[in-house]
């Protein structure tokens, strides 16, 4: 079923010019939120970071219904819903999001194993330890590059590894994955430029394909996983073969 998106926020996680990271901070104390945000800003000078703050777990859970986060910081000792309980609820909605607990009492650390917490940071947060967390999550994001799609109602991350191809159609671009199709208002040429180092190749004026999804090359066409057949421009055939063989060689290293 085609999903139509009326407006779109697009970026490539770990793109050449930097990483866009969305962070959530949940702490009932304003001063602690401010201190952490200031520390994140100092540590992430070279990154494009969006930080959302929440005073209680209910607010964060409601936001998670609409937005995905790359990293969540949780205070353990909150009055309405403690951090451990909140983390369990988050795991039900976002199973693999990295979570870091903030606490003044390190004895809570063992409870974090129940929810697969990434790390514990004691208050006030040590910036070197915070930097280690940010660098680790950034490295993980680079391995999970994705296209972000945003609508009036929600945001969704579409992993590059799941994308078969992009198709230009009038003023829109259709993004095909093995399970779902998205239509966004964007320019296929911009996708081509952004993804040139991510294993995508423009085979035709109207098609940008994932080299890793090509199953067969024939004269004037390719067959993708799932048996989708797409045309290849005559002027692109030689370059496509070279790009495909280079991609296979790189993947084998």
Number of helices: 6
Strands side by side in the biggest sheet? 1-11-10-9-13-12
Which percent range fits the helix content? 25-40%
Shape: elongated
Report the span from N to C terminus: 38 Å
**Record field, number of beta strands:** 16
Structural class assignment: alpha/beta
Order of helix and strand elements from N to C terminus: EEHEHEHEEHEEEEEHEEEEEH
Major beta sheet summary: 6 strands, mixed
- At CATH level 2, the architecture of the largest domain is 3-Layer(aba) Sandwich
Under CATH at level 1, the class of the largest domain stands as: Alpha Beta
What is the name of the CATH topology of the largest domain?
Rossmann fold
> How much strand content do the residues show?
25-35%
Number of domains: 2
Low-confidence sequence ranges: 1-19
At the fourth CATH level, what is the homologous superfamily of the largest domain? Response regulator
What is the CA-based Rg, rounded? Answer: 21 Å
Mean pLDDT reading: 84
Q: How is this structure best summarized?
A:
The chain has 253 residues and is an alpha/beta fold.
Explain how this protein is built.
There is one protein chain. The chain is α/β, with parallel strands linked by helices and 253 residues long. It has 2 domains: 20-144, Response regulator (Rossmann fold, 3-Layer(aba) Sandwich); 148-252, LytTr DNA-binding domain (OB fold (Dihydrolipoamide Acetyltransferase, E2P), Beta Barrel), CATH 2.40.50. It contains 6 helices and 16 strands. The protein has helices at 30-43, 57-64, 83-93, 127-143, 188-194, 237-252, and strands at 2-4, 20-26, 48-54, 71-75, 99-103, 119-122, 146-150, 155-159, 163-169, 172-177, 181-184, 200-204, 207-210, 214-218, 221-224, 229-231. It has a 6-stranded mixed beta sheet. A 5-stranded parallel beta sheet has the order 3-2-4-5-6, with helices on both faces. Strand 14 and strand 15 form a beta hairpin. Helix 2 (57-64) packs parallel to helix 3. The longest helix has 17 residues, at 127-143. The radius of gyration is 21 Å and the shape is elongated. Mean pLDDT is 84; it is low at 1-19.
